[in-house]
Structures are given as C-alpha cells and as structure tokens.
Amino acid sequence: MDVLIPATPAEIFVTLLFGGIFLYATWVIGSFARDAMVERDVLKHGEEAEATVLELRDTGLRISRRPVFELLLEVRQRGRASYQARVRKRLGPHQSAGALGEGMRLSVKVDRDDPSKVAIVGAVKTAPVEAFVIQGLPSAGDPVKALKDLQSMLDNELITQDEYAQKKAEILSRL
Fold first, then answer.
1. Are 136 and 164 in contact (CB under 8 A)?
2. pTM exceeding the 0.70 threshold for the entire prediction
3. Domain boundaries in the chain?
4. How far is CA 109 from CA 41, 50, 91, in A?
C-alpha cells in the first residue's frame, strides 16, 4: 500500500519548505489585497487632510515591476492634533521615487473611524506659474532675472517641474 505521507526527512523538509513559501505568498498577496480595499474605501468615504512625508523607505517588494514604498506621514486634519501614520504606496507607471520625496506635502484622505487608515490622493496643488507672473515675480523685461526667479520658485516648491519647464521655454523663446 502506497502512503501519501512523506517517508524521508528530506521529503518532509521539502514539503514543509514549499508549504511555508505558499503560506507566506498567500499572506503577502492577501495583505496587499486588504490594503487596496481599505485604500479604495478611504478614498471614497474619507475626510480630506494634508500630510508631509517624514520618511520614505523602499520595501524591496515589486508589483508589476513597480516598487512599493512605505511612507511615514505627519497627518494634519481639521479639528485634530497632527499625528503620524504609515502608508504603503506602489508607484504609478510614470512615477519615479522622486515623486514621493521626504518633506513633500500630500493631499490625503483619512478614515473617519480609524485615523491610522490614510490614503494618498496626490501632491498638494501649487499655484500656476501665471499667478506669479501676474504679480510680477519673474520680470518679463529681464530674462536672466526671470529665469533666476523661476528657479527660486521651483526650489521653494511653489511650482511643479512641468510648470518650470513650460515657463522656462516661454522665457527662452522671447530671446
């Protein structure tokens, strides 16, 4: 009579090894599935807040070749003291690690019943470059000063990299 139970220590070890790998993979996939469901629910029903990235750590995990990062956020919500929360975030197809740098301000949503559940909506919106041009910050008459002022606005995160590139091209086209 053939027995289905492994007979040798090597067979037992291999069975336990593959069983452990299977359980770990199931746990990791389940964890990400739960995180995705919580994030979807918080994005739909959560309260708006703002957060600052305090720490950014690559988890070493990849989903569809895209890295998963763990962020430590300082969350600021109306009517509550600021607090810290951890969030795992997978980069989008056209994002780089620089898209989530330390010190970056983010728009987030927070679960009403459990403030530790935080979902990232995106970067805090900055004013368009034209708003600063109208106020006369970059001088239209002096392109060198305009480029210096424009660089200063980028360095102070008042404008995005795309807005900087667009306005820089406009200034250079007038030369």
1. no
2. no
3. 26-123, 129-173
4. 10, 8, 18
What tens digit of pLDDT does each residue of 72-92 get? 999 998 888 999 999 888 776
The partner residues of 56 in beta bridges, in order of sequence, read 71
Question: 26-123, which class in CATH?
Answer: mainly beta
CA dist., res. 5 & res. 109, Å (int):
51
Identity at 50, one-letter amino acid code? E
- Distance separating alpha carbons of residues 63 and 98, to the nearest angstrom: 18
- How many Å apart are CA 22 and CA 57, to the nearest integer? 26
- Alpha carbon distance 73, 6 (integer Å): 49
pLDDT digits (tens, 9 = 90+) for 35-55: 778 888 888 999 999 999 899
Residues 6+ apart with CB under 8 A from 147: 138, 168, 171
